[in-house]
Fold:
Amino acid sequence: MTSDTITIAPFDTAHVPDALGLSRQAGWPHRAEDWGLTLSTSRGVVALGGGRVVGTALCSLLGDVATLNMIIVDEAMRGRGLGRRLMDAAMALAEGREMRLVATTGGLPLYEKLGFRSVGRIHQHQGLAKGGLPDLPVRDGTVDDVPQLAAMDEAASGLQRALLLRRIAEGGEVLRADRGFALIRSFGRGDVVGPIVAEDADTARALLTEAARRREGGFLRVDLRDPALVPLAEELGLAAAGGGTAMVKDARSTPATLAKTYALVSQALG
Ligand SMILES: CC(C)(COP(=O)(O)OP(=O)(O)OC[C@H]1O[C@@H](n2cnc3c(N)ncnc32)[C@H](O)[C@@H]1OP(=O)(O)O)[C@@H](O)C(=O)NCCC(=O)NCCS
Structure:
């Protein structure tokens, strides 16, 4: 198969099984449900060759910002310009919005060529959670809290994603502190805690500690946007497991706010 015979087509739910095969081949832990959560807020494209999906790229629309994710080319088809074709198509789906992504080492050169610039590191930590006691009170929240939490999340991230947060809260757990919140949901090999949004690092630490306490002995992952929580993650049994480079293109200024994103929903969704 040559790259000339590959066509780019809109991503359809019928492509999920093939797409899942590609993310597994890339060593990513996503299940069909995890693709489903990202697809619930995304448009996307596939590269089709020989009757099957040989590449994917999604563009998640989160208000004035789009995140580009699940950019994968079949190992056998890499280095022939397919990644760039998929990215061009996914970037067009952003329709002029600010674009963000988290780059793997393999993807970084492509994104730099496309005009993305690095704005920080994402620290992925995971492992069997060890329990601890939070230094600040953390209580249960409910789905009814989502509008308020989504407003805080938007202030911190610039992302409008109340529907996405509602969907996560409906199937997961909502943790609330006086000055922040966190969500836990199942993902990949176990559970993930994110986002963690807080007005100060102590609140973010309390939320991460409580998540680990609730998942003690289970596999837990967190994608930290702020290195301040790295030592605590290690203490809680969540070892460094790579991460990526946060990148942006066509950035708009975001208002200054006390609220800050300490951990992402996912590398795909910011
Ligand atoms: C990242 C990935 C999608 C790239 O796909 P690809 O089809 O091999 O990419 P392309 O052939 O279109 O190459 C894209 C550009 O990057 C350049 N490039 C690729 N690897 C490079 C490297 N190591 N150093 C410098 N440039 C590099 C290519 O020369 C090309 O530039 P050009 O368009 O100016 O010629 C693919 O490697 C992949 O699926 N990796 C595993 C999953 C992954 O990590 N995805 C990224 C998630 S953020």
About this structure: The longest strand covers residues 117-128.
